Amino acid sequence: MPKGSFGFQPSTDHPDIAAPPPLVFAAVIVLGLLIQWRWPLPFLPENWSFGLGLLIIFVAGNLILYAVRELIRTGTNIQAHRPATAIATSGAYSFSRNPIYLGLVLMNAGIACFFNSLWILALTALLAALLQKGAIEPEEAYLEKKFGAKYLRYKASVRRWI
What we know:
Low-confidence stretches: 1-9
Shape: elongated
Helix content: 55-70%
Radius of gyration: 18 Å
Strand content: under 5%
Largest sheet: none
């Protein structure tokens, strides 16, 4: 096996994700804001966008915090590029295998409402697809390989998104 930086062996005990999910989320938001700035395209009545956006952002943020708290309680890594040490199956993970990614998608939709941007809302579908292909599918393959039947039972009983 080739040696990595400083002569250490690179670890293979992690999912082979394409990019850190928070970076993908941020890139999609920036892209949407740039398009909205250039070609404004509102989709909500003006008096709805601010309140609805804040409500969705609040729900999404709390979902993400709830899921992170469960990962901490379980004792596994929060960062997707680090080794998983356990499978979180309770709390937010009892109704979604990917509540943090679900929260990021909801957060994107909330930001779309807040800025009243159909562009950002449309990019929500792109964000979901990028997370699905670039993070969720590699993570699932990694967890199946690492935890075997235990993860397969969990996977069979809880939906990927909701």
